[in-house]
Design brief:
Blueprint (H helix, E strand, L loop, with lengths): L1 H5 L7 E6 L3 E6 L4 E6 L6 E5 L2 H13 L2
Antiparallel strand pairs: 1-2, 2-3, 3-4
Length: 66
Amino acid sequence: MNLFWRDLDWMSDYLIFGDSDMDIYVLEITTGKYQVRDRQAFDNLFNEFSTFEGLLEHVIDQIANE
């Protein structure tokens, strides 16, 4: 998955950890921030975390609430 996304020039500043039906979970390399972005409209930033643990907690909470 990560290699597919990073083939796009504009995605070279992001490391992708995973995705869901609507979201994509990334590390913005230039800022060091972990982010939840819209999978269809990538510019839409839903959440931002300073740690990977914060991102992981968010994802687990989303799964638990489904």
